[in-house]
Amino acid sequence: MKIAIVGSHSVGKTTLAKHLAQRLNCNYIPDIVREEAVKKGFTINENTPPEVQLWLVARQWELETVTPESWVADKSLFDYVVYGDLVLKDEDVKKVIRKIVQRVVRYDFVFYLPIEFPMEGDGIRSIDPEFQKEIDRRFRKCLDEFNIKYIVLSGSIEERIKQALDHISK
Length: 170
Description:
By secondary structure, this protein is α/β, with parallel strands linked by helices. Helix content is 53%, strand content 10%. It has a single domain, classed as P-loop containing nucleotide triphosphate hydrolases (Rossmann fold, 3-Layer(aba) Sandwich). It is globular.
């Protein structure tokens, strides 16, 4: 089983992904932006350069390919389509990312988290609420364009976990 948690930054993806992986006793694919890209000194915000965006796509794809099933991913390949479409200027790079994602994305469940709580700055990602809202809008648009069936989870952490587990057990 492959589960992707999607939504704008600071909506609780990491918290939910970790809890679900633990409850389901499966592998957890961490947020590579937080875990790897920042440690390499990459710029991760509205000014992320194309080479970093392509590296992120490749690394996420690698992790989703080599991580033994079952797993829960804190990010998905859709993240890099959404953020790339917004921050990248080079249309050819955007097309490459879209083609990769269209060809390789295979999730059993896609759980979308809407913006419900105030953003907490982590010193890495943008704290601009308008940027967060724009990313949220683009996530729904991207999922619809790719014809991805997704499930909206809302409420407290426990409510989101319960909703996800209910959908998985059906």
